[in-house]
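User: Here's a chain of 327 residues. Predict its fold as tokens.
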Amino acid sequence: MAREGARPSYDPAGHDSALRAALQELRAGRWMSMRGLLDDTAQWWQWTQRTQVLAAAAAGSDVVRAWLAEEPSSVPATVMHGRVAVERALRAHREGHRRAHELWIEAWDASRTAADRAPADPVPWVCLLSLAQLDRQLLWDEHRVAAPEPTLPPGPWGLLAEADRRDPYNREAHHRMVQFLYTRAASERLAEATGYAHRVAGAAPQGSPLHLLPLYVRAERYRRGGGRDAALDLHWVAEDASREARRALVTWFESSVPEQRSPQDLNHLAHALWGALSFPDAARVFDAIGPYYTPVPWAYRAPDGGRAMEVFLQARTRSRAASHDPE
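Assistant: Prediction complete.
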């Protein structure tokens, strides 16, 4: 644990040193380390996480295409091809690229191919679920399936069920469902996403990262509401916010295996505990974060979003000082 006052850095691999090594090779245009890493990845939670991070790094190159051309029968290469296609489609949509619709269709085709080639894998279904947020008018039948509860709107519930059938409580699948619900919300209230997040967190097993889902929705609600400066405010010290942070600490942080904690989840929990003035508990989470900070959600607390690291450092210093453990 990094308890010194060194400035952190953003590293999508976090504490996963094997993933970090594969990313370095991938960025140099080489895919052999990526193949070896995925061959050694046996658990779905890690497979989902690693393929997501690798795809984000590979989306700007043809390295996965080269791998698939060299090994066309490779199932991992086929899944990664779908992952990269989805990442490109989502980026094109955010940027308003003229080929956004074309890339969307290509990504859907690649994801369906991956689902056929890897029938037990949840990731192709997570990919299809990711694309649902692009269908703002719900033109596709698979994006307007009746919800399992009357309080929730029609959506890609069948795609979520397919992912959940293969890997129950898959973290990314439920985050992608929340992102779909964000697109249906016109204001900062996000009532449907909030209700869904609490429903999932309430049903998730002990130690599941889905216990943090309400913290993500709260941060998004805060962002949509315009945010504040780095000062603490009532949005985070309210009783329900404090309760959410404390519950996530107990049901996830204190009940999970350290190696399975993602940097994003750790940063969201530290942020929520700091905001709730639970400084000693926040200090424990900051110690687990070590040097691997993530800009979100700290950027939401900065006036212009560009001082995320400074907000992180202020929060870490304040939390450690309050826990009588100075840097």
